[in-house]
Amino acid sequence: MQTYLKLMRSGNCLMAAIAALVGVFIAYNIVSSNVSPDFYAVAFPTVPILDSFKVFLVVFLVTGAGNAINDYFDIDIDRINKPDRPIPSGKIGLKAALYFSLALFAAGSIIAASINIICGVIALVNSLLLIYYASTLKRTALLGNIAVGYLTGSAFLFGGAVFFEYGGIKAVFVLFVLATMATIAREIVKDIEDIEGDREDGAQTLPIIIGPKKAAYLASLIGLVAVLASPLPYIQSLMTVRYLILVAVADLLFAVAVYEILGKNNPARSSKMFKMAMAFALISFIAGA
Ligand SMILES: CC(C)=CCC/C(C)=C/CC/C(C)=C/CC/C(C)=C/COC[C@H](O)COP(=O)(O)O
Ligand SMILES: CC(C)=CCC/C(C)=C/CC/C(C)=C/CC/C(C)=C/COP(=O)(O)OP(=O)(O)O
Ligand SMILES: [Mg+2]
């Protein structure tokens, strides 16, 4: 069981699932404050506890499926870059990982469809995109990074989609944009870190095409634009002033991540700092909502 949780990268699954719950909560706050009292009393539901649990479960399962199918297709690269992972280390067989991933995708999409049609569509589209990313897109410069950025940011959209008929997706769109930009920046840095294994595998990633230095500048630019945009949830009255204080700490961590890649040419540490900054930004969304 432990090895399958490692294949799923359960820490990422938990982070994504919490992000989706933030989406549910923020969307509920916004749409329930926008409706008229009589509509609120008559038509608008109370906080959807069961749907919130389903949202958490779907994102946990689909994210885990995406990580598992990624390692299934990455077996050759991971033998070079990450030999301790469950498949290259032999702890989980290749076919077992594939069937496990497909089962998680199916379970997640079916549960999503039981929430509403939009949640079902998002889960199905994301599942297909995760498979396409792992099999093909990840070896394509920038498109692969954008796909992972969209997928990560979509956790917020998925939470907002619980209230799609009340404008829930629009309510959380700025969170989607911030998460997408931060993830794209980190994905480019990860490609700089993996450049040797990717080159051996014939992948055409951005750092291989334009060089690691220019890729580092682009990742830093995207990351810094996300930092400059980070007050937007407060400006849009999605978040309280507590968010503004906490996200300033996340912004500082993003700045350190940029320094690690631009100033110290250390993609491994920069990637870790980006992830820490993203985790802290998620905490600021939770505490500031
Ligand atoms: C500027 C600002 C306020 C940005 C917002 C940042 C934010 C809240 C991002 C959300 C992050 C999130 C929902 C992450 C989910 C889990 C995750 C790390 C997904 C992306 O994983 C792909 C990555 O390539 C996996 O690699 P690794 O982390 O090394 O296993
Ligand atoms: C909203 C719903 C239903 C699902 C969202 C699913 C989410 C949040 C996905 C987040 C992004 C994610 C987990 C992508 C999986 C693919 C992946 C591991 C990309 C990075 O892989 P590589 O580029 O191969 O790098 P490493 O394998 O070395 O980490
Ligand atoms: Mg991989």
UniProtKB/TrEMBL annotation:
It is a multi-pass membrane protein. Its cofactor is Mg(2+). Pathway: Membrane lipid metabolism; glycerophospholipid metabolism. Pfam families: UbiA. Coiled coil: none annotated. The chain crosses the membrane at residues 12-32, 52-73, 94-111, 117-135, 142-163, 169-189, 215-235, 241-261. Its EC number is 2.5.1.42. It is found in: Cell membrane. InterPro entries: DGGGP_synth, Prenyltransferase_related, UbiA_prenyltransferase, UbiA_sf. Keywords: Cell membrane, Lipid biosynthesis, Lipid metabolism, Magnesium, Membrane, Phospholipid biosynthesis, Phospholipid metabolism, Transferase, Transmembrane, Transmembrane helix. It catalyses: sn-3-O-(geranylgeranyl)glycerol 1-phosphate + (2E,6E,10E)-geranylgeranyl diphosphate = 2,3-bis-O-(geranylgeranyl)-sn-glycerol 1-phosphate + diphosphate. It comes from the Archaea. GO terms for cellular component: plasma membrane. GO terms for biological process: glycerophospholipid biosynthetic process. GO terms for molecular function: geranylgeranylglycerol-phosphate geranylgeranyltransferase activity; magnesium ion binding. CDD domains: PT_UbiA_DGGGPS. Prenyltransferase that catalyzes the transfer of the geranylgeranyl moiety of geranylgeranyl diphosphate (GGPP) to the C2 hydroxyl of (S)-3-O-geranylgeranylglyceryl phosphate (GGGP). This reaction is the second ether-bond-formation step in the biosynthesis of archaeal membrane lipids. Belongs to the UbiA prenyltransferase family. DGGGP synthase subfamily. This is Digeranylgeranylglyceryl phosphate synthase. It comes from Methanolobus sediminis. The lineage of its organism: Archaea, Methanobacteriati, Methanobacteriota, Stenosarchaea group, Methanomicrobia.
